[in-house]
């Protein structure tokens, strides 16, 4: 990876930034142009992300390091592509295209600047995945959040504004926690570069180490709010179920950003040495509480939107609890689960909108309240252009069943593979190490199976109510353009199940690289500046 | 100097936390602002409190006599971002007030 290819690393940030800024020049009447630019940008992002993934998967221990402004590593800001960040980039861009296409049918016209905000959200997401600097991470988090505030309230209506108010307040407090954490870490270690931080943590004296751990814990709170760990997650169901369908579809990955950062930092900084395993118990037990909370929420939900939001929590909780075990094999399964559940939930949010379109406003109790709070304003019939989906109910029902299968973790789709890998990793590790399996592992196993059962029960209940016991029998008018994104996402989960072998191999390689951060650290500190002689070559690829 | 700074951070954080737990949106935004001031001061403080020290490296200047420039640049970024998000929150607050007709954070008054 050299020459101009090197600059691909910064492209996932630049493409959406330029596209988003460019779109500001046109007013809302030029919808077709705006949509085209936006879709092209997302396609380009996907192409870049897949290229980066192929590069980072090509050789073991590959690191792509990009020095912003050509400043040497610990002083300037670095962007780093390794297997994990490449995976997340691909997931984000693959998710963005269906959501965007879905929005083109009607939602993008529901308010101004949808496409600009969407592009900026992508920029924030990609930046957060790429950056190797803690403060820069804060900046990209804020870019992502600021765009998400706008997107959440896209379409307006008092329900969304109210949910947005809570969402913004919670996230502003989280941002303050983030700042306190970052500055405490800087105060104790004297660096903000993640690789440099990992390097210096071994040499810290006990006082400073304590301060660092305190800072990291406060920082962790900020990410756990984002990831939705109980008891920091009461904002999430309201916000996600109030958002418009395509927006909720991309929000599915936003809660995974918190999980990503926790995974990255805990293995990089607290992987080995005296502070090893700092905070893992919080993840373990907090994650379990989150699964329980999410499961109860899934069972109690009447409206489909809330059901999907609580499924986000179940998925976050499963990930956090499993990461809390600190077991490599299980973590690889968790990465697979992350991809699978993000695709599922994104498809679910979009499907819900299509299904509920056919329902009478009085079909469920919550729909009544939604009506009372003015959500119905957005449902104004617009002149829709496009091909209507044939055999609508059959397709919708099949998709609904597929999502139910994915959420509950039944074969043959990828949800089953993900859960199976995690469960077999957890139980297998105990069996191999001498027959005893620690109690927390049993708890996680029980909770994971229970949450699957709960998802099955509530999906069955909701499916019967929606598709079989529907009183009015009106068939929703669904465009191909809206159905296709859901089908594509579900096809991806099917592909993930079929290609589970290569995918798992990639995940295992990713986790192996994460568990031995020496390669990452070496690549960042050894990155050469542009124009510098290639005298001291290390694993760094700075060209 | 350290004591005054610590006291200021403490008072502002305390007031801020109390205010964001209040039911009116205006109280929440003032609370958030106070907390962000406190956090900004805190960031400023982690570099070590020094008075009359420049953060600029020059010929023959002892490094120990310099103020740490990194927290200063961090605080600048934090102020800008904090300002922008607070302004955004203010707009949402006004929109919520207009749509729900009340300044309660839940969009409706508590039943008496």
TrEMBL record, chain A:
Keyword Cell membrane attributed: yes
InterPro entries: CPA3_Na-H_Antiporter_D (IPR050586), ND/Mrp_TM (IPR001750)
Main localization category: membrane
UniProt entry keywords in alphabetical sequence: Cell membrane, Membrane, Transmembrane, Transmembrane helix
Domain (NADH:quinone oxidoreductase/Mrp antiporter transmembrane): residue spans on this chain: 132-430
Topological category with respect to the lipid bilayer: Multi-pass membrane protein
Subcellular location: Cell membrane; Membrane
TM helices/strands, residue ranges: 7-26, 32-53, 65-81, 87-107, 128-152, 164-189, 210-230, 250-270, 282-301, 307-327, 334-352, 387-409, 441-459, 479-498
NCBIfam families: PRK12666.1 (NF009309)
Similarity field: Belongs to the CPA3 antiporters (TC 2.A.63) subunit D family.
Name of protein: Monovalent cation/H+ antiporter subunit D
UniProtKB/TrEMBL annotation, chain B:
Keyword set includes Kinase: no
Source taxon at top rank: Bacteria
InterPro entries in alphabetical order: CPA3_antiporter_subunitC (IPR050601), NUOK/Mnh_C1-like (IPR039428)
Keyword set, alphabetical order: Cell membrane, Membrane, Transmembrane, Transmembrane helix
Residues spanning the membrane: 6-21, 28-49, 74-96
Membrane topology summary: Multi-pass membrane protein
Family: Belongs to the CPA3 antiporters (TC 2.A.63) subunit C family.
Protein name listed in UniProt: Na+/H+ antiporter subunit C
């Amino acid at each position: 990876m050299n020459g101009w290819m090197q600059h691909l690393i910064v492209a996932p940030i630049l493409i959406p930034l330029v596209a988003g800024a460019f779109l500001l020049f046109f007013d809302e009447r030029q919808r077709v142009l705006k949509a085209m630019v936006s879709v092209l940008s997302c396609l380009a992002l996907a192409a870049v992300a897949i290229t980066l993934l192929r590069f980072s998967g090509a050789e073991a221990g590959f690191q792509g390091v990009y020095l912003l402004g050509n400043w040497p590593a610990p002083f300037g800001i670095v962007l780093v592509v390794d297997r994990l960040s490449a995976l997340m980039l691909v997931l984000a861009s693959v998710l963005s295209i269906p959501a965007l296409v879905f929005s083109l049918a009607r939602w993008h016209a529901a308010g101004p600047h949808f496409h600009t905000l969407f592009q900026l959200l992508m920029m924030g997401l990609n930046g957060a995945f790429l950056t190797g600097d803690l403060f820069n991470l804060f900046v990209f988090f804020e870019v992502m959040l600021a765009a998400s505030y706008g997107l959440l309230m896209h379409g307006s209506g008092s329900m969304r504004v109210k949910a947005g108010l809570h969402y913004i307040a919670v996230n502003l407090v989280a941002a303050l926690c983030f700042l306190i954490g970052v500055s405490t870490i800087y105060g104790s270690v004297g660096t903000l570069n993640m690789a440099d931080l990992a390097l210096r943590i071994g040499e810290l004296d006990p006082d400073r180490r304590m301060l660092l751990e305190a800072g990291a814990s406060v920082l962790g709170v900020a990410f756990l709010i984002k990831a939705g760990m109980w008891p920091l997650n009461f904002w999430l169901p309201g916000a996600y179920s109030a958002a418009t369908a395509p927006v909720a579809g991309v929000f599915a990955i936003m809660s995974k950003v918190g999980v990503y950062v926790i995974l990255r930092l805990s293995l990089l900084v607290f992987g080995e040495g005296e502070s090893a395993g700092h905070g893992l118990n919080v993840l373990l037990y907090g994650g379990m509480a989150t699964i329980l909370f999410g499961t109860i929420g899934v069972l109690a939900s009447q409206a489909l939107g809330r059901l999907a939001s609580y499924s986000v929590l179940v998925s976050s909780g499963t990930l956090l609890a499993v990461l809390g075990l600190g077991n490599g094999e299980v973590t690889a399964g968790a990465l697979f689960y992350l991809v699978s559940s993000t695709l599922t939930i994104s498809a679910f949010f979009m499907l819900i909108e299509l299904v509920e379109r056919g329902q009478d406003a009085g079909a469920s109790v919550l729909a009544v309240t939604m009506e009372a709070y003015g959500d119905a304003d957005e449902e104004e019939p617009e002149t829709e252009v496009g091909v209507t989906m044939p055999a609508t109910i059959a397709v919708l029902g099949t998709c609904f069943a597929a999502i139910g299968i994915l959420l509950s973790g039944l074969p043959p789709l990828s949800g089953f593979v993900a859960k199976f890998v995690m469960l077999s990793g957890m139980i297998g590790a105990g069996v191999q190490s001498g027959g005893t399996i620690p109690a927390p592992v049993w708890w996680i196993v029980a909770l994971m199976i229970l949450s699957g059962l709960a998802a099955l029960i509530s999906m069955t209940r909701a499916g019967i109510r929606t598709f079989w016991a529907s009183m009015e029998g009106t068939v929703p008018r669904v465009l191909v353009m809206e159905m296709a994104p859901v089908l594509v996402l579900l096809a991806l989960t099917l592909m993930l199940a079929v290609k589970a072998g290569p995918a798992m191999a990639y995940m295992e390689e990713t986790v192996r690289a994460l568990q031995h951060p020496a390669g990452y650290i070496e690549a960042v500190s050894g990155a050469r500046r542009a124009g510098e002689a290639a005298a001291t070559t290390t694993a760094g690829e700075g060209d | 100097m350290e004591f005054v700074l610590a006291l200021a951070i403490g008072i502002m954080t305390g007031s801020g936390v109390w205010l964001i737990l209040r039911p009116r949106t205006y109280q929440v935004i003032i609370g958030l602002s106070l907390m962000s001031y406190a956090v900004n001061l805190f960031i400023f403080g982690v570099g070590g409190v020094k008075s009359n020290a420049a953060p600029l490296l020059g010929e023959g200047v002892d490094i120990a006599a310099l103020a740490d420039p990194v927290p200063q640049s961090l605080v600048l970024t934090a102020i800008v971002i904090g300002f922008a998000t607070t302004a955004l929150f203010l707009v949402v607050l006004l929109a919520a007030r207009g749509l729900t007709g009340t300044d309660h954070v839940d969009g409706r008054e508590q039943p008496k």
